[in-house]
Design brief:
Layout lengths: L1 H14 L1 H5 L1 H32 L5 H7 L1 H15 L17 H13 L2 H5 L1 H13 L4 H25 L3 H19 L5 H14 L4 H20 L4 H5 L21 H13 L1 H12 L3 H6 L2 H4 L2 H20 L10 H5 L5 H22 L8 H26 L21 H5 L1 H18 L4 H15 L1 H14 L1 H8 L4
Helix pairs in contact: 3-8, 4-11, 5-9, 5-10, 6-12, 8-9, 9-11, 9-12, 14-15, 14-20, 15-18, 18-20, 18-21, 18-23, 20-21, 20-25, 21-24, 21-25, 23-24
């Protein structure tokens, strides 16, 4: 039966129009997946020796174990925001003499083989092999590896239980930040505590059975929950929910664009994919920590400029590149209304500018890394507000892909086309190139000033830019209506 399910899904996937239209994009996604696999494999093989060289007084396995607790919580947050739930078109199968339990078991087994669960193994398995080669206890290493696999699968099923529960996400984030704070301010040695847990598994592999019990409980809870939903009447029934409206009267001060701003806020918060983009924009605030804390990048100022753009531009870059496809489901209705297209576009621009400004205010703690870093972030924010926001609006006139707002953002290529890859060039490469050129040949603060100047000049020319962008949208109006009306 499982083989038959696989054959049906294989045929459904390759016979769909979406597959035929997106072959080039899938090839690009495959290259990205291959890149991550090779990277994790390289770290897994060389990780032991790198840690041994850098921390000669500490056992590499103990060092890895001490940070696994953070890895578990971080993985849960990442899965919540990015991982898609297991999907199978079961409606046609519900009328056939197939046990519901078989359908549910297949869907859950399918989720176990997701890219999220496999990717980490390209680090842990080679790392375990290196440990055995280096003379570690074979039974202990295998028990440790088995526990890691159980931990990954448990995170997979726990994510499905808490999915769409923002309170659960908030609790996990608070716990993770709390543990980091306890460690950072020397209140409690969290790394030592977490390390003792996984060290104990290595010393006594029998403890891995606790992981088996946890996984069994989570699997059973998922099975029970999904089985209760696998009914024909549940599949075809219309789900009616009471709409909860928030007080958005503050937007009335914005004048004619207020109705569009309100609709965008509702759209962002009520749909899974847009909410993911919104929440992910706050995670981009921490993007600078990857670069600003490394001495290597201090000698590569252009890369620091790259990071600075993402600190404040997480929302604008991720939301702006899909304008106006976010409204594709009701684009026909919008275009039949009596309003100025300019107001529709300005509402998108205001939304990107406000979010970029807000994220910039939240970036003030980066002053800890020095005034130079913060000036770079400031220049990046001005560039995002001035140039990037207008350029993203212009690039949106070329969008022709419909978006399903209820689907997750990660691994979902719906709405993505070559346009999204092409616009990255001026958005990222241009400020890096300008900063590098002025910093190298002029020196001083000329790099920051040049990047910020581009943003300021763009703001001063906003009226003329918006006129041009509006004409472009009106010119492509009916082409977009036709494209958005097609099913993805």
């Amino acid at each position: 039966m499982t083989l038959r399910f696989l054959k049906l899904e294989w045929k459904q996937y390759f016979r769909s129009s979406h597959w035929q239209k997106g072959i080039a994009l899938k090839i690009i996604m495959a290259f990205f997946a291959l890149y991550f696999i090779v990277s994790f494999l390289a770290i897994g093989v060389g990780g032991y020796y790198i840690l041994k060289k850098k921390f000669p007084e500490t056992d590499p396995l103990t060092l890895v174990n001490s940070f696994l607790l953070y890895a578990v919580l971080g993985d849960l947050i990442f899965r919540y925001l990015m991982q898609k739930l297991p999907i199978m078109n079961i409606k046609p199968l519900l009328t056939l003499p197939i046990k519901r339990s078989k359908l549910v078991h297949y869907v859950l087994a399918k989720s176990s083989a997701s890219f999220f669960n496999i990717l980490g193994l390209f680090f842990y398995i080679p790392f375990a092999v290196v440990l055995i080669i280096e003379g570690y206890n074979v039974a202990g290493v295998l028990g440790w590896l088995f526990t890691i696999i159980l931990m990954i699968q448990s995170a997979n099923f726990l994510n499905f239980l808490i999915n769409k529960n923002n309170i659960a996400l908030g609790v996990i984030i608070v716990v993770l930040l709390g543990l980091i704070s306890l460690q950072k301010f020397d209140i409690y040695n969290v790394t030592a505590f977490g390390g003792q847990i996984f060290d104990a598994v290595y010393e006594n592999p029998i403890y891995s059975l606790i992981g088996v019990a946890i996984l069994a409980v989570l699997y059973h809870l998922n099975f029970k929950q999904l089985k209760n939903l696998v009914y024909l009447d549940e599949a075809v029934s219309q789900k009616v929910e009471e709409a909860k409206s928030a007080d958005l009267s503050f937007a009335d001060k914005l004048g004619d664009v207020a109705p569009f701003i309100k609709n965008d806020i509702r759209l962002i918060w009520r749909n899974k994919r847009t909410k993911t983009v919104f929440l992910m924009s706050f995670l981009f605030l921490f993007y600078g920590l990857i670069f600003f804390t490394q001495k290597t990048y201090r000698e590569m100022p252009a890369m620091l400029m790259f990071a600075s753009l993402f600190v404040s531009g997480g929302f604008a870059l991720n939301y702006g590149q899909f304008i106006p496809a976010w409204d594709s489901a009701h684009y026909k209705m919008l275009m039949s209304q009596s309003f100025k297209y300019r107001k529709f576009l300005e509402s998108k621009w205001i939304l990107m500018v406000v979010m970029t400004s807000f994220l910039y205010l939240l970036s003030f703690p980066y002053l800890y890394f020095g005034l130079d870093i913060f000036l770079m972030i400031t220049a990046g924010a001005i560039f995002n507000i001035g140039f990037n926001s207008l350029f993203l609006l212009f690039a949106g006139s070329f969008n022709r892909k419909r978006i399903d707002l209820n689907k997750s953002g990660f691994g979902n290529t719906q709405g993505t086309s070559a346009t999204q890859f092409l616009i990255i060039i001026p958005l990222m490469i241009l400020p890096m190139a300008i900063f590098w050129a002025f910093n190298k040949f002029v020196g001083g603060n000329s790099g920051y000033i040049a990047v910020a100047a581009i943003g300021i000049i763009s703001l001063l020319c906003k009226k003329y830019a918006m006129n041009f962008i509006e004409k472009k949208y009106i010119q492509n109006k009916y082409v977009m209506i036709n494209a958005f009306g097609k099913e993805a």
